[in-house]
Design goal:
This protein is 21% helix and 35% strand. The chain is of the alpha+beta class and 204 residues long. The structure holds manganese (II) ion (MN).
């Protein structure tokens, strides 16, 4: 598990996403779910493990209903600092679009090395929106590919409430993803305008 693939996809001179460095041991394992308005809206589900964030892209987002099986496509590991990233990835960059921290907290559960190899990882989440027992189940089992299913297990935190609708906002800023996007495009526009104004005054 390294960040080689993550870094190769990004130009850190252009994007404000973190480059990634190791952090001290002993801290509780965190999880984060980032709502990401890229070309297709999705939720990035990330679990801290071995100094990185194991990551899955969940197109429909998590569901509190144990009857729902939400597709979760495993993507490259991300650096730990990515868990605090909220902002806008510039258009034209990998994953261009706005990101909010939709939920975060800590997790515990089975050893991911075993779970990842066997194709079933049972975990317990302590977040603001997501709590209790969850399972990640790989389609095709141990020999399957990148496609997993994220499923809420039946416990007192299971519900038929649509949590992505009921609680769309960031747990960091309280903002909805549309508000982040607007703010970012406004500030980009104002930067561009300032640059253009300089060019114009330099040319005249
Ligand atoms: Mn994403």
């Amino acid at each position: 598990m390294t960040l080689t693939k993550y870094r190769r996809k990004r130009n850190f001179k252009t994007t404000s996403e973190p480059f990634g460095k190791a952090r001290s041991a002993g801290a509780k394992a965190i999880f984060v779910i980032q709502k990401h308005a890229a070309s297709h809206l999705h939720y990035d589900f990330r679990l801290e493990y071995n100094g990185v964030l194991l990551s899955w892209a969940v197109p429909k987002g998590p569901s509190l209903n144990p009857k729902d099986k939400r597709l979760a496509v495993q993507v490259e590991d991300h650096p730990l600092e990515y868990a605090g990233f909220e902002g806008t990835i510039p258009a034209g960059e990998y994953g261009g679009g706005s990101v909010i921290v939709w939920d975060n907290g800590t997790w515990k559960g089975e050893d991911p090395d075993v779970g990842l190899a066997q194709g079933k990882l049972r975990i317990e989440l302590s977040g603001h929106k997501l709590r209790g027992a969850w399972a990640l189940v790989r389609m095709g089992g141990a020999t399957g590919g990148k496609n997993w299913l994220l499923i809420k297990e039946n416990d007192k935190f299971a519900s038929t409430q649509d949590i992505t609708e009921a609680a769309p906002e960031s747990v960091l800023s309280g903002k909805k993803i549309e508000e982040i996007g607007d703010e970012a495009s406004r500030s980009q526009r104002s930067k561009r305008n300032k640059k253009n104004a300089k060019k114009i005054s330099a040319a005249s």
